[in-house]
Amino acid sequence: MTRIPHNAFVFVGDGRKALFLRNEGDEKFLNLKPEAVFEDQNPATHLQGTDRPGHLAKGIHSGQRSAVESTDWHQLEEYRFTKQVAQAAERIVRNGNVKALIIVAPPRTLAELRTVLHPDVKHHVVAEIAKDLTKLPIWEIEKHLLERST
Q: In 3D, which of 67, 86, 90, 70 has the Cα closest to residue 78?
């Protein structure tokens, strides 16, 4: 059960978009207002990388070679964006009067956030929800969060 107190911050994000919302309502009647929005332009990997994967020789005299897995530039950019958003969360927590922080993100983004969030920010996290709500309007995000709190 997730309770979202008055003035709590709700972070809704994935590797491309992040919303910081403040609850101006109370636990029963959410009224989420945007405080900050971050969006990243992250084209597909094939549009970002131009080189083919390399090859490694298995032995000096064997003549065998194996392919090296290509770099997933898209995933790297999502991770970079997640780090950038974690730094923004740190600024918001330090500058604002944030008593509680709820994080809503897909499982992979949530895991990445856990590794890059500053301990000051982690201290304020009261709930984590492994779900992607970034493409929804705010009223639907409120609806999903209220369903989890009942």
A: 86
Assign domain 9-41+66-149 to its CATH superfamily.
eRF1 domain 2 (3.30.420.60)
- Residues 78-105, mean pLDDT to the nearest whole number: 88
Instruction: Find the angle CA(136)-CA(141)-CA(142) to the nearest 5 degrees.
Output: 150
Pairing mode of beta strands 9-13, 17-23? antiparallel
- CB contact set of 30 (below 8 Å; sequence gap of 6+): 4, 23, 142, 145, 146
The Cα 53–Cα 32 span in angstroms is: 46
pLDDT band at 50 (very low <50, low <70, confident <90, very high): low
pLDDT per residue over 99-120, tens digit each? 899 999 999 999 999 999 999 8
Domain ranges of the chain: 9-41+66-149
The region that residue 108 occupies, defined by phi over 0 for left and psi between -120 and 50 for alpha, beta otherwise, is: alpha
* Counts of helices then strands in the chain (DSSP H, E): 5, 7
Average pLDDT over residues 127-142: 94
Instruction: Indicate whether 134 pLDDT > 70.
Output: yes
